[in-house]
Amino acid sequence: MADIAIIGGTGLNSLKGLTITHREMVNTPYGQPSSPLVFGQICGCSVVFLARHGSGHTIPPHQVNYRANLWALHESGVKKVIAVAAVGGIREDMYPGRIAFPDQIIDYTWSRQSTFFESHQDVRHIDFTYPYCDELRTRLIDGARLAGLDPVTDGTYAATQGPRLETAAEIRRLAKDDCAVVGMTGMPETALARELDLCYACCAVVANRAAGIDGAIITMDEIEKNLKTGMDNVRALLEHALPCL
Ligand code: HPA
User: Fold this and answer.
1) End-to-end CA distance of the chain
2) 152 lines ligand 1 (CB under 6 A)
3) Which CATH code for domain 4-244?
4) For the CA of 209, the nearest atom of ligand 1
């Protein structure tokens, strides 16, 4: 059984350095997850890896089957989930290439399947005051520092619907809501993890300045370039964090 799950986002469709033991394409009551579960060893840790957007990055954020993904990981027996996600930087200190560990989230998405508790027999209201697992966040932040990075240790993640990027006015509104970063996959993933009692933390990689922040148009070239550096940093921090988890 794996000790920990890693959900890879845009720019992290596979985990370099993972010695793969086996792959499993599982089915769940909610359908199939985005990709096979890839089990293996990395840095002395048993890990299960799932590519959120599919192995070939073909599933857009609003069509990810978040329930199947989280259910499959839970069924695999893990208790901890590290979710890697590309984001746009809203707050001044969220510059491209930087790694951040948000501590709050606001859901601006709509019409996604966002709960496991949808039957009349199972009305439950989870506590979600602090949406991320603080112990896991702390370990990841320590790992990032050991890797020589300068991680951002707080901030609110704005989860938007996508797949388009935001307008400058939308980002101004998110800034007024005190959001530090914006991404398209944080919800319902974070809430579903809590519904399953999983210890879940987000490792956000800033791919670009959010729309209108520096007046420039956002290009895919820029996003890809920054994600490449950012994901190399994620691998480095995982090397330091994983042995402690
Ligand atoms: N907005 C939303 N999601 C994102 C962005 C952004 O600017 N960059 C990377 N993912």
Assistant:
1) 14
2) no
3) 3.40.50.1580
4) 7
Other CB atoms within 10 A of residue 30 CB: 17
Q: Which of 17-26, 27-36, 114-123, 136-145 has the lowest mean pLDDT?
A: 114-123
When pLDDT is averaged across residues 96-119 and rounded to a whole number, the result is 95
The 3-state DSSP composition of the chain as helix, strand, coil percent (nearest 5) reads 30, 25, 45
pLDDT at residue 79 above 70? yes
Distance CA(176)–CA(154), nearest Å, equals 17
Q: What's the residue count for the chain?
A: 245
Is the Cβ atom of 90 under 6 angstroms away from ligand 1?
Answer: no
> Which of the two residues, 29 and 15, has the higher pLDDT score?
29
* Between 9 and 211, the higher pLDDT residue: 211
Ligand 1 pocket residue status of 160, Cβ below 6 Å:
yes
Alpha-carbon Rg of the chain, whole angstroms? Answer: 17
Q: How confident is the model at residue 55 (pLDDT cuts 50, 70, 90)?
A: confident
**C-alpha closest to that of 5 among 151, 112, 26, 96:** 26
Instruction: Give the residue extent of every domain in the chain.
Output: 4-244
pLDDT at 134: 97
Contact between residue 211 and residue 172 where contact means Cβ atoms under 8 Å apart? no
Question: Whose CA is closest to 200, among 54, 108, 74?
Answer: 74
